[in-house]
């Protein structure tokens, strides 16, 4: 099954978790197998054999930022056994690293935001790096939040309030 990632779907699936069954939330997602072809910032396209990954394309009764049914395009990058970054690393492409620039909500429609892997990660003169933290009980990762500011003013919240608590 050779497909172009941009728009084509390999396998649609309804994703239901235990919580989703209780709240009637549902995601329509796809699981992609075999040959993956991606648009590239360089000339041509990039292709990879044997990648396995999924991405949401629709949601039902899922609340996000106050609105229901507004989530699509979510791709899992967790620490599971088929971690996307590790799959790319096995083909010499990621060095175990990925970079994603979080854009301000106001500018989302005006600019593109790319996820980059390995040597493709752009390094400016003063890069800001955030290590991903793990909670050993689950396959998710976290960033180490140290504070919150609003309009340039730091809220008086002790850093330890943001630390990962045991589940």
TrEMBL record:
Keyword Protease among record annotations: yes
The molecular function GO annotations come to: peptidase activity
Record-linked Pfam families: TAXi_N
Q: Which UniProt keywords apply?
A: Hydrolase, Protease
Q: Does the keyword Hydrolase apply?
A: yes
What's this protein's family per the entry?
Belongs to the peptidase A1 family.
The name of this protein is Aspartic proteinase nepenthesin-2-like
Organism field: Prunus yedoensis var. nudiflora
């Amino acid at each position: 099954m050779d497909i172009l990632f941009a728009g084509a779907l390999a396998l649609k699936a309804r994703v239901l978790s235990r919580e989703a069954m209780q709240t009637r939330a549902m995601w329509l997602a796809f699981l992609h197998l075999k040959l993956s072809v991606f648009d590239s910032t360089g000339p041509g396209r990039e292709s990879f054999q044997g990648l396995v990954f999924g991405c949401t394309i629709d949601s039902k009764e899922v609340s996000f930022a106050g609105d229901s049914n507004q989530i699509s395009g979510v791709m899992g990058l967790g620490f599971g056994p088929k971690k996307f970054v590790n799959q790319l690393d096995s083909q010499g492409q990621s060095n175990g690293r990925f970079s994603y620039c979080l854009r301000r909500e106001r500018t989302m429609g005006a600019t593109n935001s790319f996820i980059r892997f390995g040597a493709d990660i752009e390094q400016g003169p003063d890069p800001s790096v955030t290590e991903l933290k793990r909670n050993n009980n689950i396959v998710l990762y976290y960033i180490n939040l140290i504070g919150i500011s609003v309009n340039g003013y730091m809220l008086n919240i002790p850093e330890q309030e943001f630390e990962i608590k045991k589940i």
